[in-house]
Specification:
Layout lengths: L1 H78 L2 H8 L5 H17 L4 E6 L4 E4 L2 E5 L8 H9 L3 E8 L4 E10 L7 E8 L1 H10 L6 E5 L5 E4 L15 H9 L9 E6 L5 E8 L6 E7 H38 L1 H42 L5 H7 L2 E7 L7 E8 L2 E9 L3 H20 L6 H16 L11 E9 L2 E7 L3 E5 L2 E5 L20 E4 L5 E5 L1 H4 L2 E2 L4 E2 L1 H12 L4 H16 L8 E7 L2
Helix pairs in contact: 1-7, 1-10, 7-8, 8-10, 10-11
């Protein structure tokens, strides 16, 4: 009877152990999955707003403005043509000159591939085209109002756009005043249709249900990815307040689009980007529903939940089987001798499959992490010459490099977050959005200001209300480049300046950022450097300097790093990268890599 009670008590305790273990695993998986989902969603939305939509709207704007600029040049060339001016000044009386002038108009239209060329005299009001005389212009005819408005405007060149319902096409007319704009001889110019651009708009559309429009200042749509939208007005598609914000904004004279988000009548979140064309006051507008860009995350979430449930069921069964064998040692010993070989094979297969899944997850984490680091093209656009040596210890890691261009400023940072592998990568994906928000909110007057604000926000996020969730932080070095000056500030990361005088080390502060012990009132010193023509700058994390190796198994160290700079200074950027990488491999030999490694070298234009 006592034996039965002992076994019954043991069974109850075993069940509680199984239950608590399963709950712990389930909660851990849910927290990890939720954090990964939100980090991925934030990174994708950030990339959409800062890269994808900007690239699309600027590409489409460049296509239109290129056509417009070429047409303006041709119209001004015709307006300044002495032969055409002399002909108009004599009221087009000479038949021989008239024939030559018409042939010239026809030749310009044919050679430059315009829909038509035209010339209208201010004295005779005669309208000439590439085919000859078309007719007389009259102030009483509303369709001829453009001519008299152009004469009265005294603007050397003006642009008119018109969507023709009969031809199902959008036409642009470039009007140039002949002679003195105060007393013009007439109006000449070219007309071109944007049919090919209108057809190409469908390729610029983001996703299956995104839209793209070109509107005038009143909101009338002249070009659209959906051809049926042409001729309608923007207010037919956007809420009135959003429409007013778009049409009332002024991005003219800048190459930076504006981006906003709003909720439509169906409750859907919409991302919208727009830009005013440089040549006119027309607006290029692209909008895409948020679900179009983040919809695939729902599929990933469903699959993750199913995988988590499957793993949880398997773990529960394993716990139960292991517990029952512990409760009955004799039975466990007998079954172990009979099933040992089969279990070994099954577990080996399971471990192989789990390892494949883990590596797939880490590879996906690497792709997500690569969305926050500066691309090769961004480095090429920002610097005269540059190289990056980025060597995570475990596929992904806690090092990252970051770059943003704000007006005439270039801000570049190299950071070393706590840890390496997946934990370090998660930390980088938490820090990079904070950096983006700091700069977007206007904290870009100096690197020291950016690091100070990063310290405040990171401590607030990681240790809110004094609760110690984790004691994580980072070391970081930031350079702000504008014109011929570079300003540097660092938190336990230094800048190395190679000039004709040698290599100068500019030290950062000896304080890290974001840790529990980090002082919220800590300030970071800015160092101003006047940039010489052939100067080269280097920033490295401690992974390169602390790598052990050599005959005495010591750290590579700062002196060897400076020597590498001096030895490779006459090489181009790619050769320098290879030189640093080879020197690192030669030094550590058979030693394993101790930490994530990042070395950034760059030369200012």
């Amino acid at each position: 009877m006592n034996t039965l009670k002992r076994f019954s008590l043991y069974d109850k305790r075993t069940k509680w152990v199984i239950l608590l273990a399963c709950l712990s695993i389930a909660i851990s998986m849910l927290l990890t999955g939720s954090l990964s989902y939100h980090i991925a969603e934030k990174a994708i939305i950030e990339k959409l707003k800062t890269k994808d939509l900007f690239f699309i709207v600027q590409s489409a704007a460049g296509k239109i403005e290129g056509r417009m600029a070429r047409a303006k040049e041709t119209s001004l060339m015709m307006a300044r043509d002495p032969f055409l001016s002399d002909w108009v000044s004599t009221e087009e009386r000479d038949p021989t000159t008239q024939k030559l002038a018409v042939e010239k108009l026809n030749r310009i239209a044919t050679d430059y591939d315009y829909s038509n060329t035209f010339l209208a005299s201010a004295s005779t009001h005669t309208y000439w085209a590439e085919g000859g005389m078309v007719g007389k212009l009259s102030e009483t005819n509303p369709q001829d109002a453009w001519f008299f408005q152009a004469l009265q405007s005294k603007n050397p060149i003006s642009v008119n756009i018109d969507y023709n319902k009969e031809r199902h096409d959008t036409f642009v007319f470039i009007n140039a005043l002949m002679g003195n704009p105060e007393h013009p001889l007439g109006v000449t110019g070219v007309g071109l249709d944007l049919k090919d651009i209108s057809q190409e708009f469908s390729t610029y559309r983001f996703g299956e249900i995104g839209t793209i429009w070109l509107t005038d200042h009143s909101g009338k749509i002249h070009l659209a990815a959906n051809l049926e939208d042409r001729g309608r007005v923007l207010a037919d598609f956007l809420p009135s307040d959003v429409c007013q914000m778009v049409l009332g904004s002024d991005t003219h004279g800048t190459d930076q689009p504006e981006i906003m988000e709003y909720t439509n009548a169906d409750g859907e979140l919409i991302d919208l980007v727009h830009q005013t064309l440089q040549a006119t006051d027309w607006q290029l507008i692209i909008q895409v529903p948020r679900k179009e860009t983040t919809g695939f995350l729902a599929s990933i979430l469903r699959n993750s939940i199913l995988a988590a449930l499957l793993v949880l069921i398997i773990v529960t069964l394993v716990f139960y089987l292991v517990s029952t064998r512990i409760a009955n040692p004799l039975k466990q010993a007998i079954q172990l001798s009979e099933e040992l070989e089969r279990k070994v094979n099954e577990r080996t297969q399971e471990l192989t499959e789990q390892n494949i899944k883990i590596m797939d997850s880490i590879d996906y984490a690497k792709k997500v992490q690569e969305t926050i680091i500066a691309s090769d093209q961004e480095l090429v656009d920002a610097f005269k010459d540059s190289f990056i040596l980025w060597l995570p210890k475990d596929i992904v890691g806690g090092d990252f490099y970051w770059l943003r261009k704000i007006d005439t400023k270039v801000i570049v940072a190299v950071a070393d977050c706590t840890g390496h592998g997946v934990p370090g990568a998660l930390m980088t994906m938490a820090v990079a959005p904070i950096l983006n928000h700091i700069v977007q909110e206007g904290y870009h007057s100096s690197p020291g200001e950016i690091i100070t604000e990063l310290n405040l926000r990171l401590k607030s996020a990681m240790h809110n209300k004094g609760t110690r969730i984790t004691d994580d932080g980072l070391d970081i070095g930031i350079c702000l480049i504008e014109g011929n000056t570079l300003v540097f500030a660092g938190a336990k990361i230094d800048l190395y300046h190679k000039s004709h005088a040698g290599v100068l080390r500019i030290q950062g502060e000896r304080f890290s950022v974001g840790y529990l012990k980090s002082d919220v009132d800590q300030t970071f010193q800015n160092t101003l450097i006047e940039i010489g023509e052939d100067d080269f700058f280097y920033i490295t994390t401690d992974g390169f300097l602390d790598q052990n190796g050599g005959p005495k198994d010591h750290s590579l160290g700062r002196k060897r790093f400076i020597s590498l700079i001096e030895e490779s200074s006459n090489l181009n950027s790619q050769e320098q990268r290879d030189y640093f990488n080879q020197a690192l491999n030669d030094y550590r030999q058979e030693e394993s890599q101790r930490d994530d490694i990042t070395v950034l070298g760059f030369q200012i234009r």
